[in-house]
Amino acid sequence: MEVRGCEGRSGGLVMEIGMIGLGRMGMNMTKRLLQGHLEVIAYNRTPEKTEEVVNDGATGAFSIEELVEKLQRPRVLWLMLPAGPAIDDHIDRLMDILDKDDILIDGGNTYYKDDIRRAERLGDRGIRFVDVGVSGGIWGLKIGYCLMIGGSIDVYEYLKPFFKALAPKEGYLYCGDIGAGHFVKMVHNGIEYGMMQAYGEGFEILEASPYQGSLNYSEVAHLWNQGSVVRSWLLELAEDAFAKDEKLSDIQAYIADSGEGRWAVQQALETGVSAPVIATSLMRRFRSQQDNSFSDRVLAALRKEFGGHAVMSAKKK
Question: Which pTM was predicted?
Fold first, then answer.
């Protein structure tokens, strides 16, 4: 496939993409694409968000049909929607109005087996499909998104300008055929579960120790990021969370589990892989919905810091 562009508002050749879904991730990804001098035609179910991103330089569309009509062929559309029925509903609508060789990208947190099923349906109409696992949370706008990409290699090569605009240097990877991107992202999130669980348990041991009165947990997190073998971006976020509220007393230890954590454990079971850390961390998230431990408050705080996930306020006694 040969990269095609269009004339941008300020002159010069600019590639264009349609973005469907302007939630927490989709909005910032749209803004980052615009910062990369790419043309974005954006649609959201609620028009207020479409109007917001128009102010940042996007072209607004207020229906799926208008979005498709405004894109030049072969069209490139990026779905940034919740996993499940919402994606199937949009694909059902798009199948009747897209043309052969148009490209549909699913950048949500989708189960890789759903990618394979959807790609087969779209392929019957000659529509190309790509799955992209996206990590970066609310910080992606500033530092870029880590992209894990599945699909045909020729479509991947064609879409590289978009991946380069969204990702930091060396921040995107072709992982293989359809489903590979979301499969790698599923495993990524399973590892994330385990890492967060270990940090949460570590700080709970500190909190239960005879030294908890002399320890500042923000300072401990900062210290561990200075050359320690457990240093990480998650610890930087823990430092920030503890600086805001050292005992995390305003957060209830209710941790939602994403589908990807469950899918990672399910995949381990299907393939006979021992994954006790990931499985246990998933079980702990279920437990968090029943009590209010300090370690679970750490996990809830970390999810808020890196992904902007909502937390439940602690119930006042």
Answer: 0.87
